[in-house]
Write a structure and sequence with these properties.
The complex is a heterodimer of chains A (65) and B (255).
Chain A: E1 2-5, E2 8-11, H1 17-24, E3 32-35, E4 38-40, E5 55-63
Parallel strand pairs in A: 1-5
Antiparallel strand pairs in A: 1-2, 3-4, 3-5
Chain B: E1 2-3, E2 6-7, E3 12-15, H1 22-32, E4 36-43, H2 49-60, E5 64-66, H3 74-88, E6 92-95, H4 108-120, E7 124-129, H5 133-141, E8 148-149, H6 163-172, E9 179-181, H7 187-195, E10 200-203, H8 205-208, H9 213-232
Helix pairs in contact in B: 1-2, 1-9, 3-4, 4-5, 7-9
Classes of the chains: A mainly beta (65), B alpha/beta (255).
C-alpha cells in the first residue's frame, strides 16, 4: 500500500507500523513515530495497522536551541 | 541551581544547533561546562543523521532538555513532547509554542494550555515565555516550577531589550528559578541578566555563530559566573551625581 513517510510517498507491504518501519530501514531505537498526527508509542507499533494514504512521521534527535 | 528538585551544575544552558561541525559542538559543551543542553526532534533521514547526532551528544555526557521548537499549536507541542519523552527518556521539556513566525514570539495562551496538559502528565515543563508577569503567574498555576522569559527575539543577539521587565519578574517571583532564554548576543548580555538576579541563561546562536565557538563558550561561562557573583555580592545603588571616593576630611587648603 502507499503511505506518506515524512511527507514522501512510499510503497510498503507490511500491514503494521512495526513491519513498515523495519521495511523502510528505520531500525534505530532513537526514533519516535506519529501516525496521522497522533503519537504511536513504541509498544503500540506492532498492534497499529496501517491503511492506504496514512501519514507517518518518523522523528529522531536533531540539533535544537 | 536547583530545578524540579535536581541540581544543575552550571548556570549556562546551551543550545546544540548551528555549530560548524559535531566536533565543534563537543568542544563547546566541554569548554562551557554547561549543565544542560537543548535538542529537538526532526524527521529522520535515510542516512540516519539523527542517530549520529544523538551518539555525538551522548559522548559529551551532557544532560538533555528536549524542545518543542517549531510547534505552533497545543496539539503539535503535546504530541512532540510525547515523542521526545520516548526518544530521550526524560520528562524534562523545553516547551515552545510559537505564535508569530517573524518574531518567534511565544503564543502565551497556547503555552499555558499546553503546560497545563503536560504537567498533569508528569512532564517537568521549562516554558519559553515572554516577560509578562500575569503569564508567568498562569504558568506557575499550570504546574511549571520555573520560567524562561525571552531577552530578545530568538537568534537576534540583541541582548536584553527590557531589563526593567526582567527586574520586575525577579521581584515578583522571588523563589522561582528564572532563565533568560533567547536574545543573548554577547558575554556582557549574559552578565547583565545574571546581575539582575536571573538564575541562568540559555543561549545558542551567540556561541554557535561566533568566529571561535569554544572561545565564546568560555567567555559566556565566565560572564555568567561574574554576573551571578556580582548579584550575590549586592551591588551598590546608582546615584545621579558624583560622590567623591577619596575622603574630603583632611583635604589641605592650598589655594
Amino acid at each position: 500500500m502507499k503511505i506518506l513517510v515524512n511527507a514522501e510517498p512510499r510503497e510498503v507491504s507490511g500491514l503494521t507500523l512495526s513491519e513498515a518501519l523495519a521495511e523502510l530501514g528505520f531500525d534505530s531505537p532513537a526514533v519516535a513515530t506519529a501516525l496521522n498526527g497522533d503519537f504511536v508509542p513504541r509498544d503500540s507499533r506492532a498492534a497499529t495497522a496501517l491503511q492506504h494514504g496514512d501519514r507517518l512521521e518518523v522523528l529522531a534527535p536533531m540539533q535544537g536551541g | 541551581m536547583r530545578i524540579y528538585g535536581e541540581t544543575i551544575a552550571s548556570r549556562l544552558l546551551l543550545g546544540t544547533a548551528q555549530y560548524p561541525s559535531p566536533a565543534v559542538l563537543q568542544d563547546v559543551i566541554r569548554a562551557s561546562g554547561t549543565g544542560l543542553v537543548t535538542v529537538s526532534l526532526r524527521r529522520e533521514t535515510a542516512d540516519g543523521a539523527g542517530e549520529g547526532f544523538w551518539r555525538t551528544l551522548r559522548e559529551t555526557g551532557a544532560r538533555i532538555l528536549p524542545n518543542t521548537a517549531g510547534c505552533h499549536t497545543v496539539k503539535e507541542a503535546v504530541t512532540t513532547a510525547h515523542m521526545a519523552r520516548e526518544v530521550f527518556a526524560t520528562d524534562w521539556l523545553k516547551l515552545e509554542v510559537i505564535g508569530h513566525a517573524d518574531t518567534l514570539q511565544p503564543d502565551v495562551f497556547a503555552l499555558v494550555e499546553a503546560a497545563r496538559i503536560l504537567t498533569s502528565e508528569g512532564f517537568k515543563v521549562f516554558p519559553y515565555t515572554t516577560d509578562d508577569l500575569v503569564v508567568g503567574e498562569r504558568l506557575l498555576d499550570a504546574g511549571c516550577e520555573l520560567l524562561m522569559p525571552w531577552g530578545a527575539p530568538i537568534g537576534s543577539g540583541q541582548g536584553l531589550r527590557n531589563p526593567d521587565a526582567l527586574r520586575a519578574m525577579r521581584a515578583h517571583f522571588p523563589g522561582v528559578p528564572l532563565v533568560v532564554d533567547a536574545g543573548i548576543g554577547r558575554p556582557s548580555d549574559a552578565a547583565q541578566a545574571m546581575e539582575l538576579g536571573m538564575d541562568a541563561v540559555l543561549l545558542n546562536t551567540a556561541v554557535a555563530q561566533a568566529g571561535d565557538p569554544a572561545g565564546m563558550a568560555r567567555a559566556m561561562a565566565l560572564a555568567v559566573e561574574a554576573g551571578r557573583a556580582g548579584f550575590d555580592a549586592d551591588p551598590m545603588d546608582r546615584r545621579d551625581l558624583a560622590v567623591p571616593s577619596t575622603p574630603v576630611l583632611g583635604l589641605a587648603e592650598l589655594a
